[in-house]
Amino acid sequence: MRVLGVDPGLTRCGLGLVDGATGRPPTLVAVGVVRTPADLDIARRLVLIEAGIVEWITEYRPDAVAVERVFAQHNVQTVMGTAQAAGVAMLVAARMGLPVALHTPSEVKAAVTGSGRAGKEQVTEMVTRILKLPERPTPADAADALALAICHVWRGGVTNRFQQAVAAQASSRGGRR
Amino acid sequence: MRVLGVDPGLTRCGLGLVDGATGRPPTLVAVGVVRTPADLDIARRLVLIEAGIVEWITEYRPDAVAVERVFAQHNVQTVMGTAQAAGVAMLVAARMGLPVALHTPSEVKAAVTGSGRAGKEQVTEMVTRILKLPERPTPADAADALALAICHVWRGGVTNRFQQAVAAQASSRGGRR
């Protein structure tokens, strides 16, 4: 399963691609950021973000896209732009036929560090270790995008195992009928 | 000048098209809403909104798009979806080469009713009168989209007159050099 994680933002939109499967350590495919100039109007910044995500999906063909869920109470000054960048990521993924998942920052932190209240430093550190990277991914938005992708692979794994268990249970019941 | 006003929303995204010029009363071109089902995931709802706006722009060829500016402090439960619908409208307009303007709700109310604190009823009433409509446009989102378009035509008129004055001043100065 190849997952594109998106840490949304207008100035820097983090993109992190990971290959993973249940019971195997995930591996890095690609990581980077789409940057847009602060002096451009927001409409054109969204166009640049759209183009960047389309390019990544076209080049790397992920199976799913995981986007950070944005909350209204976070950093009021930038939250609208962040929400709109997240909306563009969801739009592009759905338009290209990919399943979209949203994960909250604390779900992502808990998945990679074991604590939903871990700091940015700790998330970057754990992403570096989990993916066995020679150095820490920078900027933090890129590391966060990888953490989102890892979180999705691992949570997706759990869902799949659960679904498999349900399916197995259903078929064994069916067999006994 | 033909303006498409967009009152953003996931459940109902109001669209209102108006033709107008400085010193002449604006006229209605078209009005409606893009609706998306509440049981669809947000990513696919954004895809439907995008498709609806692309269709309107392709059919009616506006010269500009005016979108309501969304604030973080408004109705926290729905504000993220509203912001994302607004983002999609801005994205589509910019991608199709159209200028995008944002107007605050109080700018729009002030433009059509004379008061920035007018109620929804009053806005609908004034839009009906200004455009000489045989009946009130419904739902309220459709009336709000028309109010946005009227606001933009009128404010655009002011901007254009100012720019013309500046240009005239500059050319008369140039002539004296």
Q: What report would you give on this structure?
A:
By secondary structure, chain A is α/β, with parallel strands linked by helices. Chain A has one domain (2-176): Nucleotidyltransferase, domain 5. Chain A is 54% helix and 21% strand. Chain A has a 5-stranded mixed sheet with strand order 3-2-1-4-5, with helices on both faces. In chain A, strand 2 (12-21) and strand 3 form a beta hairpin. Chains A and B meet through helix 1 and helix 2 of A and helix 1 and helix 2 of B.
Largest sheet of chain A: 5 strands, mixed
- SSE sequence of chain A, one letter per element: EEEHEHEHHH
Q: Could you say what the CATH topology of chain A is called?
A: Nucleotidyltransferase, domain 5
State the helix count of chain A: 5
| Biggest interface between chains | A-B, 27 and 26 residues
Kindly report the spatial arrangement of strands forming the biggest sheet of chain A. 3-2-1-4-5
User: How many structural domains does the protein architecture of chain A include?
Assistant: 1
Give the helix/strand class of chain A: alpha/beta
Mean pLDDT of chain A: 89
> What value does the Rg of chain A take, in angstroms?
17 Å
The poorly predicted ranges of chain A are 157-161
End-to-end distance of chain A, in Å?
Answer: 35 Å
**CATH C-level label of chain A:** Alpha Beta
What percentage of residues of chain A falls in helices of 4 or more residues? 40-55%
Catalytic activity (chains A, B): Endonucleolytic cleavage at a junction such as a reciprocal single-stranded crossover between two homologous DNA duplexes (Holliday junction)
Main location (chains A, B): cytoplasm
Protein name (chains A, B): Crossover junction endodeoxyribonuclease RuvC
EC number (chains A, B): 3.1.21.10
